[in-house]
Structures are given as structure tokens and as C-alpha cells.
Amino acid sequence: MRVGVDVGGTNTDAVLMDGLSVVAWHKTPTTADVSSGIIAALRAVLGGSGIGPAAIQGVMIGTTHFTNAVVERKRLRQVAAVRLALPAARSLPPMIDWPADLAHTLGLHRYMLQGGHEFDGREIATLDEAGLRQVAADIRGKGLAAVAITSVFSPVNAGMEARARAILAEELPGCALSLSHDIGRVGFLERENATIMNACLTALAGTVVNSFRAALAELKITAPFYISQNDGTLMSADYVERYPVLTFASGPTNSMRGAAFLSRTKEAMVVDIGGTTSDVGMLLHGFPRESSVAVEIGGVRTNFRMPDVLSFGLGGGSLVRDDGARIGPDSVGYELTEKALVFGGDVLTATDIVVAAGRIDIGERRRVGRLKGALVNTALATMNRMVDEAVDRMKTSAERLPVILVGGGAILVTADLPAASAIVRPEYSGVANAIGAAIAQVGGEVDRVFSLERQSREEALGDAKREAIDKAITAGATRESVQIVDVEEVPLAYLPSSATRIRAKAVGDLAMR
Amino acid sequence: MGWTLERGDLVDLCRGAAFLGTGGGGDPYIGRLMVEQALDEGHTVKIIGLDELPDDALVIPTAMMGAPTVIIEKLPGGEEAIRSLHRLEAHLGRKAFATMPIEAGGINSTMPLVVGARLGLPVVDADGMGRAFPELQMETFAVYGVPGTPMVITNEWGDATLVECHDNMMMEWLARGITIRMGGSAYIAEYAMDGKTARRVSVPGTLSLVLEIGRCIRAARQAHRDPFAALIELLPRTPYNFGRVIFEGKIVDLRRETTQGWAMGRARIGAFSGGAVMDIEFKNENLVARVAGKVRAIVPDLICVLDHETAEPITTETLRYGQRVKVMAVAVPPIMRTPEALAVFGPGGFGIDEPFTPIETIA
Q1: Cα–Cα distance for residue pair A331/A314, rounded to 1 Å
Q2: Which of B37, B134, B322 shows the shortest C-beta gap to A494?
């Protein structure tokens, strides 16, 4: 048995699963200390099902805690940003394009040293070890506890970052060291940004992971626990303590993966309709399709593996205007149960429309009895059109795909969608997020430049795939379940000496004892 | 009359540069940050027209050469292009009056701005490609008789090579090899010429134009107007004179491979309604667009792949399966369509066995 938990901004959901079936689920408000909300949710699912803690083999947690910390600029550590690149890259120092308030929160401690590699693995410069020891002394003097290390082309050759870590670990025992090749892909500034953000979260990561541990200990659950990352795969708790930044997009990813699981569909569009907004994404091979453009988080440009999600302003609390022709983007949000007409309020919301149409029975239906039929029909059509357009925008082929509806607002869609081949409304769709966490897999990814001077393209592709598979197994996947889910190749323009950038991703089921 | 570039213009300028990049040229984001950095340090960028150049003033164009995928990782030290310019000055025994782009597209629209800002040199509002091209000899400068060499190539260490060649093809050949040895990106000063020559051999007004194109797209979006309609309205007021949307659909197939050192390949776009399919062949930049084997637009006219909704230009490297796009074709100015120009960067210059047909005459 395994437990999936989703710690969101509003609710903490837990779901208990036996193999591939849902045994019990529970939704409870998220608490300030995180752990008591988790304890409440876990108690409910264990108590409700009569399952003892010893039967739990794994706990999978998805959380938006770290994203929120960066967006709110709270609970962040000051960071020493160490760049190994000189004499290259001097022109644009670390945190160059950051929002000033966030950069100042982190202290703007920037160090640039000789080092880094070329695209083909040659050194730009030998690592300046003496300089690095001086930097360490300065960091010690300032009392900084987190360091971000980024070396040019470390996705091609990680040796220099590893050497720098060894030196800093010796000079600064106990300091949290984040290495860029563990975190990001080719694209120096974006990878460095992610590494610095990771470093600033290392204190919070310890606190949050410990609160997860405490909650599980309180309930006498001794199984290992994992935290889901951006692409829907799992990380061990130790890994999250070191790489919290990799959780940034796990929310939408988990709901999409949960939708894929609940509907037994691998190629589909997923619409997650909440109280204020809806997210649309696309499933490819059962995983969310990733965004190919730079994604900004808290105003900082990154190149994370993030699902390509389109958010639009439709939810259960969306305001209805113009006789139903205009809906949202504003919403009564968490005040739905006070402000909506069916709950005795005076605001006409999307929820009131579906109650008036007899699609769902919540609140007091008589309160919407006087709404004109024409208005109700117009509003229903508007909501359908909004969802249909969003699905159509996110689709990547003219071919129609099934649309999976999840989230509390799924009821707002009342008719067929022209963009969909079918509409799927799976059971347990309200906790799709926690289910997505529970069924997450582990992955391994390779993204680097291969020289084709001494090997063929096929050999390079083979190397990339093997490396991705090895990485997935190292991360905990069972060998027989691992498969390659994505391969992408970008030749390096302007270089006659044949080099190509290959991205390969492998995923597999987590080995359970 | 010269004008001063404002910080707030840079995002628009880079968007326009990506448009004229016709799929190539590299993402100008890094160039933009370098210009912003220079402006923040108190430097200014002064742009002057070709008509403001004295006849005997020395103009030294500056640029980055190499792989866009390398530059996104190995950022410039910042002094490379400046050193190339200084060494070329020393070799020529003369000081530059101004610098200038060799290419109006991608990152090379911004590199001379950084050099101009840091050295206090004006930047000439013109270039030698009128767009982006993959090779150094593909320049109106070269077409109309200016030797590219002596040229200087510099890396982040300040290692530098002076290249002197009997023709511009040999310059491209040698410089490409040196650039690879320097790690796949390097910074150059080449095609030094006097003001009178620059007026004769350059595509005029291309810095103003990229800024105008970038602004036009943004303004249309802000006003919730169709950015494509806005572009089509704008072009007749420029030397580019004519543009239209020749196809819309989704990327349904993408083939990219490294052949002889370039990103060669083909993007296939399927119409939303199904049926019609457009194939775009590229060598870093988009070269020819065909529907059912029939040419719909061909080099040197611009073939721009733009986001279907926002009209944001999409570079060849960031093309991906599933993107919804519109393809826009744009007429290049007359200086780029003469028989001499077409011999260098017309279809034949890329080994495409088709005649050049101006986009205005393709129904």
C-alpha cells in the first residue's frame, strides 16, 4: 500500500492506494506548520480504512511550499553564488536579470573564478583552486550557509563543479552546496539562476522535510517517503533536502498524472478546474508535455523541466456577467460558500449556473430559481466555449484527443467539446493531485552536447539513452520497468565539426520492497 | 540626425531582430542583457544614419560568430569584440569612426551596440545582410566589392587571429575553423570600409527597422489587435515594402541534422483544417517554403515562423513539434535582389535548384 499526499496552498489531500486502486481519501485544510495538516489527512485515511501503519510501503508527497517561498520572498537563505567561468562570462555576473527585491533578499554575494569547459569538454581554464579557497574564507567571514556553484558547460563535463564542491566542503564544513549540473540543463544563466534559487531554499527544505518526517513518525509510519518533482517523477526526501528547487511545478504535474491514471489514458488533454482558475495541459505517453520556452518563477528566468500549462480564469467561483456572455476571470474564491447565490450570497457565480441548470445539487437551488433560462443557457455555452478554446490552444495536432476533467469545478463543463474526441470524468477526480503523487515514477534525464567526430549519431543516441536509463535506476527505478519516454536532438548550428545536443529521458516504476 | 537608444527599446529591438533573423541568428537575450549592463553603467548607445558618415570615416563592423547553442552556455567575457576592433584599428593604422552590424537578425543586432556603448562609438543604422545568413561572405558588403579581410577574431582570453585572404569565401572557411578551435563562439571585426563605401554597399535603416517591427508587434498585442495585420500594414512603409501570411498551422514534423557544420533540416507545418502541408527547408535560417512541391517563398526573401497568437518570432532551434504558427514572407529591399546579390545569397548560393521568385509575384 502507498499513500499520496498533496500539500497545497489551501488544502492538504491524502489518498491511500492498494496497488492501483484507491482505498480511501481525505481532504483537510493546510495548516501553517504543514505537519498537523498532513497528520490529520493521514489519520483520516488510515482510520477510515482500518489499515495499520506497518502496511504502508511508501509515502509520496507533492507540495507547493518551495514555489510559494520564492514567490513571497519569505524564509529564504542568503546565498554565495560561485561561478567557474573566467575569462568567459565576465560580462554578465550572477543574478544579472533578477528582480531587485529578490536579489537583495539573497544578499548579492557574487564570486567569479577561472574555470569552466568548452562544448566539447576541453577546459576553458584550469580551476582556480587558490582563488576558491579565498572565496571560502570570505564566505566564512560573512557567515553564509548556502553556496551555489555553476561552471560553464557542466552538463558536458561536471568535473570542475565536483572538484569545487570537494574544496568548499573541506573549507566550509556544514555549508549547503548546490551544484548546477545536478539541477539544470544547457543554458548557463537559466541553470545558474535555478542553482541559486535552490541554495536559498536549503534551510526551508530541511524544515519542511523534517516536518514531513515528524508527521510520519507521529503516525508510526516507517516507510520511506518521496517528494514529487516538476516532471512527475519522484525524489527521495534526502534529495529534496539538497534540491528543493526541483519541486517547483509538481502541482500541475501531479494533477495531470493523476488524471492519466484515473482515466487509464496516456494521450489526452487534461483540464483541472478549481475555484478560481483552470489549468490545461497535454499528456504525452502519460506524462505532461514540457514547456520549451524559458519559464519565470518569482520573476527569475529558468529552464526547468516544467509542464506546458495554460491557465485561464474559469472556476467554480467565477463571476457571471453580461447575461452569461462573460465569465471570470475574477472569482469569489474561497468565499464561494458565503457569496454565491445558492449559499445565500448576492454574487452570481459559475456554480450558481450549474445548480440552476440542475447539473448538481449544492446549496439551496430555490435561490437561483428566478434566473432566466436564456441566461443560464448562455452561461453554460460560454463556459464550454472557454474550456474548448483552451483545449484547442494547447493541442499539438489537428487530431482530436480525449479530454479528462478533474478538480472540483469539472461540473462546469456540461456539453461536448468540439476539440475533444471524448470527455472523461474519472472517479476520485477531486484528489487527482494526491493520486498523481502516489503513482509517480522515477526518472533519469540526459541533456548534453555530443561530439560526432569520433562516433556516429546512432552511437551517440545509444549512449544518451543508456545514460538516462542508468540514471533512472540509480534514482530507484526497477530495471525491468525503465523505458525511454523522450528523445530530442538539436544539432549545434555553425559548427562544421559535427556536434549535437541530445536530450533523453527514461522513467520507471519505483522499486518497492 | 542620430538618435540615442533607450533602455526601454531593447526588448522590442530584440524581438524585431529575431523577426529579421528568419529562424537563425541566435536568441538576442544575452546581447540584450549586455547592452542593458552597459547602459546601467552610464554608457549610451548613439545610432547614426548612413548619411551622417563622412566620406572618409572608417567604419569597422563587429559581430559574434559561432553556434547560438554555445553562446547560451559560454557567455562572453565582454571585451572580445572590442579587442577585435582595436586590433583591426592597429593593423590598419587608423581609428574607427563608427561600428556597425554585419547582420540584422538575432544576437548580432545587439553586439555592435555593446561595442559602441563601451567605446563611445556611434553605431551605423544599417547592416550587410538585411536579415541573418549563415556565412560570412553572404554580405551585401561582399557582393558590392568590399573585401571582408583583414579581419580579427578574438576569444575570451584575448587570443586573437588576424585573417587575410584572397577572397571572402576563404575568409569564411578559415574563420569558421578558428572559431571552432576557440570553443564554438568568437567575436570578430571585419569588412572595414569608408563612409562613402558603406553608403553604397549597406542595407540602410535596419536597426530602426528591427525596433519598429518589435514595437509594432508589442503595440498590437497591447491594443488587442491582430499583430500580423499590424505587421503587414507596417512593412510597405519600410524598404521591405511587402509582407503577407503564407500559411498557418501546427508543426507536424521536424527534421534537424548537422551536415557540413550547419543545422540543416526541414519543418513541416500541417494546416489546422488538415490537407495542405507546408515544408520549410532551413540552413540555420529558413531558405525555402513549399506547398505540394510549389515554392511559396524563397531566399533571400524572409520566411518568418511566428507564434500563431502572439506573433513572437520562433528560431529554428526552438521550433518544436506541436507549435501553432503562422508563416510570414517578406520582400527584401532591392539592393538584396540584384543579379550580383542573388548570385551570393539567392537560391543558388544555397544549392537550391529553383529560380528566385519575388514574394510579391507568387500568387
Answers
A1: 8
A2: B134
Q: Which residue of A has its CA nearest to B314?
A: A293
Tell me, yes or no, whether B136 and B263 share the same domain: no
Nearest alpha carbon to residue B35 among B3, B68, B4, B72: B4
Residues B47 and B185 placed together within one structural domain of the fold:
yes
Interface test with A, best of B10, B75, B314, B325 (most A CBs within 10 A): B75
B273 SS3 class:
coil
Beta pairing partners, A471? none
Give the pLDDT confidence score for residue A513 in this predicted structure: 47
CATH of the domain at B317: 2.40.390.10
Q: Are residues B258 and A499, on separate chains, in Cβ contact within 8 Å?
A: yes
Q: Is B52 helix (H, G, I), strand (E, B) or coil?
A: helix
Residue A201 φ/ψ, nearest 5 degrees: -95, 0
Rounded (10°) CA dihedral A447, A451, A456, A458? 0
Cell triple for residue A349? 457565480
Partners of B98 in the β-ladder: B59
What is the count of residue pairs from A and B with beta carbons less than 8 Å apart? 153
The reply to whether B222 falls in a domain is no
End-to-end CA distance of chain B: 40
Say whether A88 and B250 touch across the interface (CB within 8 A). Answer: no
B361 found inside a domain = no
The answer to whether the CB of B41 falls within 8 A of the CB of B247 is no
Distance CA B349, CA B142 (A): 13
* CA-based nearest distance A124→chain B, Å: 8
CA B38 to CA B79: how far, in whole Å?
12
pLDDT tens string B5-38? 999 999 999 999 999 999 888 778 889 999 999 9
Supply the DSSP symbol for A357: T
Q: What is the pTM of this model?
A: 0.83
Residue B226 lies in a domain: no
- Tell me if B9 is assigned to some domain: yes
Q: In terms of domains, do B79 and B164 share one?
A: yes
CB pair distance less than 8 Å for A188 and B73: yes
Determine whether the interchain pair B176/A496 forms a contact, defined as Cβ–Cβ distance below 8 Å: yes
- Cα angle A232, A235, A239 (rounded to 5 degrees) comes to 145
Cα–Cα nearest to A211, from A385, A38, A40: A38
Check B65 against A494: CB less than 8 A apart.
yes
Copy the grid coordinates of residue A266: 496516456
Say yes or no: B173 and B44 in one domain. yes
Collect all residues of chain A within an 8 Å Cβ-Cβ radius of residue B177.
496
Mark whether B170 and B297 lie in a shared domain.
no
Domains contained in chain B, number: 2
Name the percent of chain A lying above pLDDT 70: 95
Are residues B289 and B175 both part of a single domain? no
Q: Tell me how close the Cα of B351 comes to any Cα of chain A, in angstroms.
A: 17
Q: What is the pLDDT of residues A329-355, one digit of tens each?
A: 788 866 788 899 999 999 999 999 999
Residue of A nearest to B324 (CA): A396
Question: What are B127's strand-pairing partners?
Answer: B203
Chain A residue at shortest CA distance from B312? A293
Sign of CA dihedral A13, A15, A20, A23: negative
Mark whether B343 and B242 lie in a shared domain: yes
Q: At B60, which CATH number?
A: 3.40.1610.10
- Confirm or reject contact between B7 and chain A (CB < 8 A): no
A230-244, A300-314, A355-369, B78-92: which is most confident: B78-92
Cβ–Cβ of B261/A495 closer than 8 Å? yes
Report d(CA B76, CA B34) in Å as an integer.
9
Query: Chain A within 8 Å of B3 (Cβ-Cβ)?
Result: no
Q: What is the pLDDT of residue A496?
A: 54
Q: Which helix (H) or strand (E) holds A347?
A: none
Residue labelled with grid coordinates 539567392: B346
Q: Is residue A103's pLDDT more than 90?
A: yes
Domain extent, residue B84, equals 3-204
